[in-house]
Design brief:
Elements (H helix, E strand, L loop, with lengths): L9 H12 L6 H25 L5 H12 L5 E2 L1 H7 L4 H13 L3 E6 L2 E9 L1 H22 L4 H22 L10
Antiparallel strand pairs: 1-3, 2-3
Length: 180
């Protein structure tokens, strides 16, 4: 992939400051991790604003979208939901309570497990998420408009590689941890 010239940003300035203050310090990882961190904050702001247009929090979109992606009849167990969203069961219960109070989903008994519950997207929830997902994808596309599609695919693959690397490093003991 041919590198395109883009103007310097605040991360470049921070790296330059570190190079001056501590020349022996390898600040290169900041070029990637620092930008990803800053991008996440900006992306989150944009996505929160898009969700607010519908009177819902970003986390609410995530829950409704998970149910919608499950396909008809738009049902998941609470465990499937909290695992797919990387939440604790307590955090998921709170979110489900709020979305149920808004009439966007309902809890039903699992016919295959007397103790189990199923979370079902209501018709109101389905209508809302179907409208929201269109705007959600438009906002995401707007954020990527300056990057040609071929480079978007390349970036997606690089991010997948980074994600895999971070996940694998999470399985390893942290710096300073000693296991005997």
């Amino acid at each position: 992939m041919r590198e395109r010239h883009v103007k310097a940003d605040s991360i470049d300035e921070i790296q330059k400051q570190w190079k001056s203050a501590c020349p022996e310090l390898n600040s290169w990882p900041m070029a990637i991790i620092g930008r990803i961190s800053r991008l996440e904050r900006r992306i989150d702001e944009r996505m929160r604003a898009a969700c607010a247009e519908f009177g819902i929090e970003r986390w609410g979109f995530d829950v409704l979208a998970s149910l919608r992606r499950a396909g008809s009849p738009f049902v998941l167990t609470p465990t499937q939901l909290y695992r797919s969203l990387l939440l604790t069961s307590g955090a998921m219960t709170n979110r489900l309570d709020r979305l149920e109070d808004a009439g966007l989903l309902k809890r039903t008994k699992d016919p295959n497990d007397r103790r189990g519950l199923r979370i079902v997207l209501t018709s109101k929830g389905l209508d809302l998420i179907d409208r929201m997902v269109v705007i959600h994808m438009e906002v995401e596309a707007e954020m990527l408009v300056a990057i040609p599609m071929k480079e978007q695919r390349y970036l997606a693959n690089l991010l997948r590689l980074l994600s895999d690397s971070i996940e694998r490093s999470n399985d390893q003991p942290s710096r300073g941890e000693h296991h005997e």
